[in-house]
Amino acid sequence: MAQGKAKISISLDAELVVEVMVLAGVGSPQDAIELVVRDYIARGHRPAARGESRDRAARDAEVQPQEPQG
């Protein structure tokens, strides 16, 4: 029996997949999603990317100053 990588099947919204295909410039839904997942994993392994994400999240979460109440 030949050994290969385990595979899974998932369902995604078609519009979402088409948008990813267009952005990635790929004609296959399988290839487009695989590229996105591989990129996400690669970014998670880069220390600068992790720090950047945390910094951005912290900036986004900062409380905006309240306007003076009159």
Explain what this protein looks like in three dimensions:
By secondary structure, the chain is mainly alpha-helical. Helix content is 61%, strand content 0%. The chain has helices at 14-24, 29-45, 47-61. Helix 1 (14-24) packs across helix 2. The longest helix has 17 residues, at 29-45. The model has no long low-confidence stretch (mean pLDDT 81).
Quick take:
This protein is mostly helical and 70 residues long. The protein has helices at 14-24, 29-45, 47-61. 61% of the residues lie in helices and 0% in strands.
Helix content: 55-70%
SS field, number of helical segments: 3
Strand content: under 5%
Count of strand segments:
0
Could you outline the blueprint of secondary structure elements for this entry?
Elements: H1 14-24, H2 29-45, H3 47-61
Summarize this structure as a short list of keywords or feature phrases.
70 residues, mainly alpha, 3 helices, extended
